[in-house]
Amino acid sequence: xxxxxxxxxxxxxxxxxxxxxxxxxxxxxxxxxxxxxxxxxxxxxxxxxxxxxxxxxxxxxxxxxxxxxxxxxxxxxxxxxxxxxxxxxxxxxxxxxxxxxxxxxxxxxxxxxxxxxxxxxxxxxxxxxxxxxxxxxxxxxxxxxxxxxxxxxxxxxxxxxxxxxxxxxxxxxxxxxxxxxxxxxxxxxxxxxxxxxxxxxxxxxxxxxxxxxxxxxxxxxxxxxxxxxxxxxxxxxxxxxxxxxxxxxxxxxxxxxxxxxxxxxxxxxxxxxxxxxxxxxxxxxxxxxxxxxxxxxxxxxxxxxxxxxxxxxxxxxxxxxxxxxxxxxxxxxxxxxxxxxxxxxxxxxxxxxxxxxxxxxxxxxxxxxxxxxxxxxxxxxxxxxxxxxxxxxxxxxxxxxxxxxxxxxxxxxxxxxxxxxxxxxxxxxxxxxxxxxxxxxxxxxxxxxxxxxxxxxxxxxxxxxxxxxxxxxxxxxxxxxxxxxxxxxxxxxxxxxxxxxxxxxxxxxxxxxxxxxxxxxxxxxxxxxxxxxxxxxxxxxxxxxxxxxxxxxxxxxxxxxxxxxxxxxxxxxxxxxxxxxxxxxxxxxxxxxxxxxxxxxxxxxxxxxxxxxxxxxxxxxxxxxxxxxxxxxxxxxxxxxxxxxxxxxxxxxxxxxxxxxxxxxxxxxxxxxxxxxxxxxxxxxxxxxxxxxxxxxxxxxxxxxxxxxxxxxxxxxxxxxxxxxxxxxxxxxxxxxxxxxxxxxxxxxxxxxxxxxxxxxxxxxxxxxxxxxxxxxxxxxxxxxxxxxxxxxxxxxxxxxxxxxxxxxxxxxxxxxxxxxxxxxxxxxxxxxxxxxxxxxxxxxxxxxxxxxxxxxxxxxxx
Length: 863
Description:
- This protein is an alpha/beta fold.
- The strands form seven sheets. Strands 19, 20, 21, 22, 23, 26, 27 and 28 form an eight-stranded mixed beta sheet that branches. It has a six-stranded mixed beta sheet with strand order 2-1-3-4-5-6.
- β24 and β25 form a beta hairpin.
């Protein structure tokens, strides 16, 4: 790409990059609650955790937040964050030759000592390359020189962690200086100590990498393959509450880990093999972390996280205890993963709260034989009882996950998925109508699993999808989503590849393949990958994989399979703890449909994990379930009501109206004031904000009303709430009004605006007299017709004259003017908006204009 601004500049031109000209500018502000200013100059090691997904995904990733918190807790270490920019910001960065930046310090990524990427998906490496390119950092490790890390021209160390990087780092190895294998809580702190010493004595890049290679869990590709253990760590739930985003994220809730690792032994499941042993968190820690976290963050929902929450035997006791403690605060619990064979009335009771979320189960296969092959440990009776329990507790819509292409699968097993749907509906007919949402994914063999030697076929996937589509065409009240076969084939090709695949990843990225493109233009993106594969001379290998032999392993004799399994694999040097010999033996058990017990609760399967390096299973036994407190709805009495004047300025202007409502909601929860809630199934604080602001507009005197279930003075309210609000949201005053006084929207009579309008670049700015003449015409006109969209998006002509109360002249400058606008506001909220004023002026001046800055100076209320 073209030359960037120097990497050692203190910051980037943030205001000209992040503004209302791009989508969702609030995600780049780095002003979340919990961010603490760091002293750049005092930090011996400067980290940036760089998540290769958009902010809404990265900011809700628990591992990302935990590692960020741990690094910032280390002495003399500083950690900032960066995320994949959306295409509009990426284009703007390239257009002005500005480097990608960290969101808190606004400094270029190249000015940090070390950048850490989370790699959790096979095709996610293209996003890593996008971020490196935007940062002006060489894509490959060999291109980054050998300067000491503190040299102004030295690129940062680039490393990767995460499940995909741990399982098989080879396809991505040329892009990274080192790979952090396994859990990072302790590993990254150790890396930081080595870097601090290395930077202090001025070691060269190569010397630093040689030192890092001595740390258990660090793989340095340039030094060569050698056996490296993955690391394990004890879960630290209290680090999960570090940041509270101001914009809505994918998982917009407090998340607390209750169990790390899974020993169920599902033979297709890579996370289950790569996270052993199982480590339960002490129930007291979980309860304390959730209770403290809900107060500290102000979230309305929380989630307990594990690969299989139901295997945390203390879950019913912990869940009831939390529900008893938090039920007055209008919060809800979600469990992202649970086994249907453990789903009972106790778990059903603790789920939800004031709102009932979705419920998802994963039978994976449609027949008992195939579930035995994959060691799912699930029977039809378990399915029926679990679904019945869910329906008896109010769920009528369930999500089910299945896979096709599993080893040993036949057409009968594929039809078994449809048979399972029919069976469940028949069995539940006495309760009510069961609506199902199915996801049918294509099995992709993963490294470090018993099925890592399996072969799949794209043609067979397509045929089996067709079988299911024909069956499902007869079903009603059923939604089915199929994974794109081409996507699955590409995941497999990359995920089980070696370093020869790296040029494919780079070429695909250069051809425009990115994660977002899979969902926007699958054909074009697939074409980019195929073109990259052919250009790398690997087309034959890909076609062989895509055609597959499907049942090849079953056709071999045990001796032939042993010989096949002894062949070297690209990831053999990564020691996950699970021995390759055990995986081979478990493959044989799978082909004979033999099941293995869960070693957390039954006998050891001798997989090789437990020992000095990785530890042992830590299982908390089931605890007595406390008495279930009588349900109490959030207080809905209206005893007092305040009308509050506030200002929204500076960066807060880049947050939407919904973001603002969310910020106030969480601030009120943190303040613990006696707020009154609405009734119904989804109680909400009785908070009413006045007329919504356009994105990018500041407000100097806006209003909201808030009702309380107990008396509170205006002074006490201001004292409690202001500390909970971010900079840029300032409470100006508050006064009491009658509880049943007219709604705030009925009290607004007008809005006063101050507008900074400029002529678009390339056009001549009219003289002041011309501007003033145009304003005079607007005031004198009998009608002000303008084509506007109604609430349904239809174009209609509207006369805006009735809303125009007055216009004020402030100043003229060579690029535009500053004017004032007074607009009448209907009870419905309709008014003359600044962008409409811009269009009216453009009509009279015949000049394209820009609304550079807008301030709502006041919302004027009736006396």
